[in-house]
Design brief:
about 290 residues, 12 helices, eight-stranded parallel beta barrel
Length: about 290
């Protein structure tokens, strides 16, 4: 197991009825997840709706996670954006807060060249006081970091891992800890000797995902039994259905910030059926 852990949950950011960050619900959820399979948390990542948080909200949430961290659990701060100066600022502040690592997504929208990506990560790593994890998610950024580029970036001092969300290029890279970037590739990542996964389904089936680590002989069977969970939680833009699931389970996640919207009646019904199939929800509708 890597120093950061194997089951790392990309934790949602709960909002209250006024759309403000609900710190009390965040801390409660973090502790619930810690008791149900999670080794650590990515705070203010994609699932945490970081793109709609102000810098002040993002840094306050990261500091809160560090201050209230469950014993023995790691905190990884999402600090990536498409402006290198901003990434450096967020990364420096996150490091000062006491996080264990930062997760830095490939700059989105501006589609940097290979050299631009290298210079970006060199600058961020030089400014960081903690390990940097790369985040390759071409479906959201329109830029892919292939294995050869990842191998080159692995030579930069301070870059120690990659969250790989391009399943077609999932492979071990010398010098980088490999984390599954999609729930559906978690088992495959473990099978090939990767460090673990940065996961979403662990919000609701964390103990089962922990069993995939602890019971390698049953890993494929457990993974197959969770396929409908992965599909349901991602049937629309994440974290829409994850928040719906948490709210149904009585774990206050609140709503979402525009441009994301809450799950529709039909989507919520599908989420409810999935939770019931897995024995996670019983009784009258919430």
């Amino acid at each position: 197991m890597s120093a950061l852990g194997t089951v790392l949950t990309a934790i949602v950011t709960p909002f209250d009825e006024q759309g403000k960050v609900n710190e009390e619900s965040f801390v409660a959820l973090m502790h619930h997840l810690a008791e149900n399979g999670s080794d650590g948390f990515v705070v203010a990542g994609t699932t945490g709706e970081a793109s709609t948080l102000t810098d002040e909200e993002q840094l306050a949430l990261i500091a809160l996670a560090v201050a209230e961290r469950p014993p023995g659990k790691s905190i990884i701060a999402g600090t990536g954006t498409n402006d290198t100066r901003e990434v450096i600022h967020l990364t420096e502040r996150a490091g000062e807060s006491g996080v264990d690592a930062v997760l830095v997504v490939t700059p989105y929208y501006n589609k940097p060249s290979r050299l631009g990506l290298k210079r970006h990560y060199e600058a961020v790593a030089a400014a960081s006081s903690v390990p940097v994890l790369l985040y390759n998610v071409p479906g959201r950024t329109a830029t892919n970091m292939g294995p050869d580029l990842l191998a080159e970036l692995a030579q930069i001092e301070g870059i120690e891992g990659v969250k790989q969300a391009n399943g077609e290029e999932l492979q071990l890279i010398d010098g980088l800890d490999l984390y599954a970037g999609d729930d559906g590739t978690f088992a495959r990542t473990l099978d090939m000797g990767g460090a673990g996964g940065i996961l979403v389904a662990s919000h609701v089936v964390g103990n089962e995902m922990r069993r995939m680590v602890d019971e390698p002989g049953r890993r494929a069977e457990i993974d197959a039994s969770l396929r409908d969970v992965y599909e349901t939680l991602f049937m629309t833009s994440s974290p829409t259905c994850t928040k719906a699931a948490l709210n149904l389970l009585g774990l206050d996640a609140g709503g979402l910030r525009l441009p994301l919207v809450e799950a529709s009646t039909e989507e919520t019904a599908v989420v409810r059926e999935m939770l019931e199939r897995h024995g996670l929800l019983t009784g009258t509708p919430a």
